[in-house]
Amino acid sequence: MSSRDPSSGSESPDALSSVGGNAAPVLRSFVERIERLAEEKQALSADIREIFAEAKGNGFDVKTLRKVIAIRRLDPAEHAEQESLLELYCRALGIDPLS
Amino acid sequence: MSSRDPSSGSESPDALSSVGGNAAPVLRSFVERIERLAEEKQALSADIREIFAEAKGNGFDVKTLRKVIAIRRLDPAEHAEQESLLELYCRALGIDPLS
Amino acid sequence: MSSRDPSSGSESPDALSSVGGNAAPVLRSFVERIERLAEEKQALSADIREIFAEAKGNGFDVKTLRKVIAIRRLDPAEHAEQESLLELYCRALGIDPLS
Amino acid sequence: MSSRDPSSGSESPDALSSVGGNAAPVLRSFVERIERLAEEKQALSADIREIFAEAKGNGFDVKTLRKVIAIRRLDPAEHAEQESLLELYCRALGIDPLS
DNA sequence: CCGTAATTAACAAAAC
DNA sequence: GTTTTGTTAATTACGG
């Protein structure tokens, strides 16, 4: 059982106190660190959405774009020949991949 | 169908043609920008997981930690509404919501 | 390595040999029995989803519904413990658990 | 907003009452139907586990067995030539698939 | 604004 | 017991 689980400790008058100090600041620190990173994550999501919107504005199909990216992500050979899938889709769209 | 589909015509002045008529580099750029941000997002997810693990190592209960963070994310009114709805359902079923 | 690997010997009286020495039908039988049950399981999942949808159509909040069911599944002591831990964390962070 | 959401309705003195009656029995019915199906689902999971155990007792490797089943499930051609994968694994195990 | 569909996170089960 | 994997639920994003 965890040492911070109040059901297992009874030597302290405050269940959020660990040996040598109050656990509340520690808890607060963990929570805030996580919240900070979560915010950054959301910001990145917003950025990504923005780029999809921009691509859409440039005439690309967002759904297809997502598929291309998903396939590239899953392709086991992506590190060997990372360009090939994009070229494939360029050809499928009638775009010269060499241009 | 995407407007970049060459079957829909290529003489139009719209997004079908980028400067110089080469859409592939534009597509490639969008894909790479998105992939870059997606990588950063994944890295943040990993960081968050790490912090939860660290908190667990410090004796905190991860599941409860997630709950508190979720409560903080919600605005108080919304949380109160959810709570009261839960109590309502519990009463309808004859459950003590505090068990 | 599986004991059905023929490289481990075939003259033994153990599970390697079924009646008549034909393991393939036995394997096939296991696979098919499992697949059959797995299908039934999926069907039940679909049924459950359907009921949630029906409840939603009757004005119930699905998320809350899931919560009540989860509470009923837990034994009361365990639920009470989770609740008190949550309150503890909330107090440490200066949150009113009832918002 | 849902008609059973207490925040949207004010014509009833009891938020769990819908037009023409008390909603509690309806709620209870939904909950019980779901719980019933969930129980059946768990029972099936137990059955499946049992069969894996039985297969193991017959000398089959459970992990490999799971893989065979997973692949069969994902195989898009499974309806056309459902037997082929099993035969493949029989051969890999040195078992005559025609026996 | 709502319902649907895709992604992502939480949970449960299994392997080590 | 812990770590990983597979399944299931919740969130989020897109289209109507």
Number of strands of chain A: 2
Low-pLDDT segments of chain A: 8-13
What does the largest sheet of chain A look like? 2 strands, antiparallel
Shape of chain A: elongated
Mean pLDDT of chain A: 76
Counting helices, strands and paired strands, the structural category of chain A is mainly alpha
Q: Please, what is the oligomeric state?
A: homotetramer
Please trace the helix and strand order of chain A, writing H or E for each element.
EEHHH
The most extensive interface, with participating residues per chain, is: A-B, 46 and 46 residues
Number of helices of chain A: 3
Helices and strands, with pairings:
Four copies of one chain form a homotetramer.
Chain A: E1 17-18, E2 21-22, H1 24-57, H2 62-74, H3 84-92
Antiparallel strand pairs in A: 1-2
The structure holds a DNA duplex (16 and 16 nucleotides).
Describe what you observe in this structure:
4 copies of one chain form a homotetramer. Chain A has 99 residues and is mainly alpha-helical. Helices cover 57% and strands 4% of the residues of chain A. Chain A has helices at residues 24-57, 62-74, 84-92, and strands spanning 17-18, 21-22. A two-stranded antiparallel sheet of chain A has the order 1-2. The radius of gyration of chain A is 25 Å and the shape is elongated. In chain A, 14% of the residues are buried. Residues 8-13 of chain A have low confidence and may be disordered. The interface between C and D is large, with 46 and 46 residues. Chain A binds a DNA duplex (16 and 16 nucleotides) through helix 1 and helix 2.
